[in-house]
Structure formats: structure tokens, C-alpha cells
Predict the structure.
Amino acid sequence: MFLVNLVPLVLLVGVLFGSGVDTAEQTNELRDAIVTVFDKMVEYSLKDDTQSLIKLFHQNATIMMGGLPPVIGHEEIRTLLEILPEKASDIKCILKVVEPMDECADFVYVAIHFEFYNELREKYMDGNGVDVFRKTGDGYKFYITMFNKLNQQTSDSSDSG
């Protein structure tokens, strides 16, 4: 369990201290590629298209949701998606940070805020997340996803450190 939590920290440190790509054009292209993945995620979520959603995740992807154990790999992610069907009529993903983690942008760090709206256009849930994308022959895939709804208690929120 310690290693599951250590990997995202190590990847985040890499983003903060060593991004090798710094041209505006490359940054915009990278951002556009990541936005496209999020747009597909929203589209497939709203259609409850689990099969298409799974294809957006790397085969060894990990999802960490506040208060729940990590979900790892396509089969566990499929199970999660099937037991948590999307009930929103709209989802907004606001990308706050999109940064390459290495010179070739094989890994990309994303900080995101998400908002879920019902049919009356009322926001009923929002939260923040951190994603690490991994470049594949098929484009970028979700590799590590961590998120927590705002004001949600996590299983270890009472721990002091």
C-alpha cells in the first residue's frame, strides 16, 4: 500500500523539478491532446459507454478515490465504472495544470477541478483531482488518477500525519 501512494508522489516531484519541455507550441499541443481525452471521457460517461471509457485507461492504470482502496487495471476499473454509473446530465472538467513530466512528454501531469450537473443545471457534486497520463501508440491514456469530492471525508482524514 505504501508503494501505491509513493509512486504518485515521485511522479509529482518530477513534474515540479524537471520538466524538459518549455516551448509554448509544444505545451499547447500537449494541452489539446489531454483536453481531447477528457472530452471523450465526458462523452462516454454521459452515454454510460463503459467499453469506450475503458479504452481511455492504460492497461495498468490505477484509480485512487478518497476513502476507497486503489482500483488497478482494466478489469477492476470496468467493475468500478459498472457499479458507479454516471447520473449527471453534464460534466465540466477544468484543467488547472497540464505539464509534461519528462523531455519526451511520455508522462503528463494534470491538476483538474470537476463539476457534475443534474438535468436542472444544478451543480450537485464537485471536486479536485490529479492525473498522470502515459503516452502509448494509441495516444495518451489515464495512468494514475487520484480524486476526491470537495468536503468528502477520506478513510484516513483523522490521521494527523
Summary: Confidence is low (pLDDT under 50) at residues 157-161. The helical segments are 2-18, 24-46, 50-54, 73-83. Residues 8 and 161 are 18 Å apart (CA to CA). The chain has one domain: 29-94+103-149.
